[in-house]
Amino acid sequence: MPTLTHLVRKPLPMGLTSQQSKSKRGPTLTIFEALFLVLLAALLAGLVIAASRWARGQRSQALRLLRLLSAWTTVYLLIDIAVAISAVREFHQAGEMQCFDDWCMRTLQAHRTHDDLVEVTLQLSSRAKRISQGERGTVAYLLDLQGQRYDAIPETMVVPFDTLLSPGQTLMAVRQFRVPSQLRQVNLVYEHGGFPVQLFIIGQAGSWVHGPAMTSLDIR
Q: How many domains does the chain fold into?
């Protein structure tokens, strides 16, 4: 059974990052993702059974089942929050692949084109075998070391994140940000759109406490 220490990233052999190692094996389901799916299915099934018993007049049994489901959910959420508090925020280096199911992104570099304008080059790719896909409602922004946020300039988003990628396809995308000219180091943060399901998966990046993973960038 994994312990909290398994959430701390361990060094890999020279020249191989954690996400590159995973991408060689293809997308896999972690034990915590599997646990979340099993418990979610059990919760939904339990709610359907409880509603059915309530409709048939078996209200005491329905309430007993609802109390049991509530206890399971509370214990799971407490474990999820405890792990989030104990874990450290996930950091990546430039060039390291980040994959979300079969959709992957690699932050290649950041360089200054003008005094207050920084251009970040991203590589978007799909490791899917059959379907085309994109990431809807997602956003990437920069954070300086003091936590100041810098959003991308909208008109520079030539290749949006929701661009459909064919199986195995790779695209280059550029984002431009206005940042103070004295900044030399920033972190790029990529956040999923839609419902933040990662908050409810134990040990997932983007926890209740630490926020989403970041990629450290030196501005050239």
A: 1
